[in-house]
Specification:
Pfam family, one: Tetraspanin
Keywords: Membrane, Transmembrane, Transmembrane helix
Low-confidence stretches: none
Oligomer: single chain
Protein name: Tetraspanin2
Membrane topology: Multi-pass membrane protein
Structural class: mainly alpha
Subcellular location: Membrane
Strand content: 5-15%
Number of strands: 4
Shape: elongated
Number of helices: 6
Largest sheet: 2 strands, antiparallel
Length: 203
């Protein structure tokens, strides 16, 4: 009975891990990133991510708290500490999703680079709704932009993908342990039955 219960518990645990793994893959499969010509970084669209992520993470209620936290971090200020002397150096930089979408205006707006978090004179202010939300106020920047929400989801997607690898390894290990355990249990039961037979306990 104990061995049966242990096998059942192991099977349930494996099933739960598999459900979690499938869910994580479904949720993180859509990728809102896209390449920008002449840039070393990607930019991100909010509608490119799953509705589950958008509703849970980038919803207005959640975002107000997240935005305040972002403003208190050094995600954007540290860009100014990396000494991008020219616009070409900045455009060639490999920015994180958060930096690419929260710390600078969308490329399509055509803003002129002054420094990583200071941009002026947009040539295409109607190119994206976020163009008018950009602010050179260092406590605001593009934290109110949908593109910033997309950048956060880009970061989360990347971290979830890394976690998925750990889940896959855990599931494989659990399945191996389960199979080995079941085989050992069956072998033990077979040997016990054979021993009883030899001793005349089974007729």
């Amino acid at each position: 009975m104990f061995s049966d219960g242990l096998s059942l518990s192991s099977a349930i645990l494996i099933a739960l891990f598999l459900v979690l793994l499938v869910f994580a893959f479904i949720v993180t499969r859509p990728d809102g990133s896209y390449d920008v010509p002449g840039r070393g970084y990607k930019e991100y669209r909010l509608d490119g991510y799953s509705s589950w992520l958008r509703n849970r993470i980038a919803g207005s209620k959640s975002w107000n708290k997240i935005r305040a936290c972002l403003a208190d971090t050094d995600v954007c200020p540290k860009l100014n500490q990396q000494q991008y002397m020219t616009v070409d150096q900045f455009f060639a930089a490999h920015l994180s999703p958060l930096q690419a979408r929260c710390c600078k205006p969308p490329t399509i707006c055509g803003y002129t680079f002054v420094n990583p978090t200071l941009w002026t004179n947009p040539t295409n202010p109607i190119g994206d709704p976020d163009c008018n939300l950009w602010s050179n106020d260092q406590t605001q920047l593009c934290y109110n932009c949908n593109s910033c929400r997309a950048g956060l989801l880009g970061n989360l997607r990347s971290e979830w993908r890394k976690a998925n690898i750990i889940l896959i390894v855990a599931v494989v290990v659990l399945i191996c342990v389960y199979v080995i355990g079941c085989s050992a249990l069956k072998n033990a039961e077979t040997e016990d039955l054979f021993r009883r037979y030899k001793q005349g306990w089974v007729r």
